[in-house]
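ok so i was messing around last nite and threw this chain in just to see what happens. nothing serious, just curious
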Amino acid sequence: MTTVDATFFSKSLDRKVTYSAIIPKMNREMRMFKTLYLFHGYSGDRKDWFYAGQVEQLAESYNIAIILPSGENSYYVDHPNGMNYGQFVGEELIEESRSLFPLSCKREETWIAGLSMGGYGALRNGLYYSETFGKIAALSSRIITKTSEFEEDRYPERIMKVLIGSQDIQDIPDNIDLYELAKQSMSLPNIYMACGTSDFLYEDNVAFHNELKRLNIKHDYIEDTGDHNWNFWNKHIILAIDWLTKT
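result:
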């Protein structure tokens, strides 16, 4: 197994960016690796999954490549100021990583996942770039939608100002509204969601789960005891990768 930090110039962000790649040892039967693009949460970076998680062991155990970008506090969407984080992870990072490593280009073998802010980023970009990603796994996700009631702990005004250029939740555009994206996506990826019952985002996840049910969108939704922390995420990233690789 090889772990690499790679740097390239991102046109979407107009600067150099660095991401990490975990590439297992290729056996004689392998030609291209099934690939998971894995996102960190708010105030974190790509190394969180190394320091607090267990991604190297999981990549080796399941014989998959894992690509980890640093999304800063972007929510992995395109911002009004021109910083196009959604385009970066949904287009540029895919092209760049596939050009350097033996990664499958098949939709059914290209997956996206994350926790908290990264769980939202996985859902948003998995739905928005549904022609690229065949499966989504989202843990303890932020759920951004204009239909939610405003609460400061879920939608801090400073975050909304950066994401949409407004502090009014009703100004959220359809292309970052998960409810709207679920309605509009032409070819939905398979979706896996998990959230702890003590998580402050639990109600938001239940509401989105119910919306997916209302829309007759097939998905797997898992509830478990737990909070918004690494005890929950380390347990459920294993279950999520097991789901990704076996369904």
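not much to say yet. The longest helix spans residues 230-246.
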